[in-house]
């Protein structure tokens, strides 16, 4: 089989030459053997393959290590007593290879709730958790989503609309993406990166202020969102793309200066979003499947073909080349 390995740690944003696709034996041993069908290419990999020294949510990769990421595949063989059997679809975190040997308890058996296996890789649970738990939106409220063209943001606008938001505004650095977000993905307006980095720019699109913020960017856009926040506004902190995608630096820290007086005076709430709760993930999958089948939501993504395309897919994702999620069909 083939798998993608790290060749060298990246200084700045990783490039295709930091990786290689190698032939290795199909793994053997205890666990369920899965033939992977599709895996997720996610921006957080920058933290795992970079040469920084800050804390990371997952263990750093060393040269020679295979990359990791969410994947969906078909069980080829399983030991006695396993919760999945040959022919079952499962999701797991050992993507970036054609076959994975996944220990019991490290995979989730899928039951067909979503019409496309790749949809299980959609990062919408973060958007759904933000808008229902960490910063719950109420009918008629105004929602601001920073980084609206990313995997989370392209779903967050649609979810906010389905949950009853009155006005949904996003931010992006691409005029082409802005047009699509308005035309296809539930946004009323989309601000440029420059507009979104100043309170005055945000208030041009939301003159009555913002009630809920789904922040995928941090930095100046988060500071501007606080300035435009209404009384009792809720801010869900999902990502830190302003530092994660910065060419210089490691992406492992995301400092930002906020006016605490503004937060206190307006009673603004800030909560981080990890969306690790299995119950929340199950609720999202059920509702996502219902919305997909009813044609009420779309899964914006770019699908690369073949494992050999994965290093290029990561490079293009980090360069902002695609709207929505990026997946590789093995």
From TrEMBL:
CDD domains the record matches: PGDH
Keywords of the record: Oxidoreductase
Pfam family, one: ADH_N_2
InterPro entries, alphabetized: ADH-like_C (IPR013149), ADH_N_2 (IPR041694), ER (IPR020843), GroES-like_sf (IPR011032), MDR_fam (IPR045010), NAD(P)-bd_dom_sf (IPR036291), Quin_OxRdtase/zeta-crystal_CS (IPR002364)
SMART domains, alphabetized: PKS_ER
Occurrences of domain Enoyl reductase (ER) (ranges): 12-328
The name this protein goes by in its record: MDR family NADP-dependent oxidoreductase
Species this protein is from: Actinomadura gamaensis
């Amino acid at each position: 089989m083939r798998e993608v390995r790290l060749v060298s740690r990246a200084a700045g944003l990783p490039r295709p030459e930091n990786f290689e696709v190698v032939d290795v034996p199909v793994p053997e041993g205890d666990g369920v053997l899965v033939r992977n069908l599709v895996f997720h290419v996610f921006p957080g990999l920058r933290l795992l393959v970079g040469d920084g020294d800050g804390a990371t949510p997952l263990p750093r990769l060393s040269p020679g290590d295979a990359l990791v990421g969410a994947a969906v595949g078909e069980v080829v063989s399983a030991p006695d007593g396993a919760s999945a059997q040959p022919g079952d679809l499962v999701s797991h975190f050992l993507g970036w290879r054609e076959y994975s040997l996944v220990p019991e308890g490290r995979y989730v058996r899928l039951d067909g709730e979503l019409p496309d296996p790749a949809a299980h890789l959609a990062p919408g649970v973060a958007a759904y958790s933000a808008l229902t738990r960490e910063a719950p939106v109420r009918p008629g409220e105004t929602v601001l989503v920073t980084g609206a063209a990313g995997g989370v943001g392209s779903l967050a606008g649609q979810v906010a609309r389905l949950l009853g938001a009155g006005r949904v505004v996003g931010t992006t650095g691409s005029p082409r993406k802005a047009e699509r977000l308005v035309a296809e993905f539930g946004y009323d307006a989309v601000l440029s990166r420059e507009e979104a980095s100043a309170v005055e720019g945000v208030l041009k699109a939301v003159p009555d202020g913002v009630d809920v913020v789904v922040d995928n960017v941090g930095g100046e856009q988060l500071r501007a969102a606080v300035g435009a926040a209404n009384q009792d506004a809720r801010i869900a902190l999902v990502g830190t793309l302003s530092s994660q995608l910065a060419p210089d630096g490691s992406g492992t820290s995301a400092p930002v200066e906020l006016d605490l007086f503004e937060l206190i005076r307006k009673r603004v709430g800030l909560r981080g979003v990890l969306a690790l709760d299995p119950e929340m993930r199950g609720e999202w999958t059920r509702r996502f499947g219902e919305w997909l089948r009813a044609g009420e939501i779309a899964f914006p993504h770019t699908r690369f073909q073949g494992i050999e395309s994965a290093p290029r897919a990561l490079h293009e994702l980090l360069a902002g080349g695609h709207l929505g999620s990026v997946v590789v069909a093995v």
